[in-house]
Design goal:
This protein has about 80 residues and is of the alpha/beta class. It has 2 helices and 3 strands; from the N terminus they run H-E-E-H-E.
Amino acid sequence: MRYRLRDIQVAMGATGQLGQHAELVPTAVCTDSRAVQPGALFVCLHGPNFDGHAFAAQAVAEGAVAVVAGRALELGA
């Protein structure tokens, strides 16, 4: 099943601005910023050895259409 970013946001009870991307359907879900392809949804995982939040900007630069994060991020303009 494929979901729009708006649907994913609602299902997760998430907040944030989707703007023009609300109707997009992500092409993939990635947790490794090195594997992000254009159109992917990047999910920041946090563990004892790494923190995906540190790689969110890189994921966006690689073409991620949205980021799921547990805290506010500075992704640049």
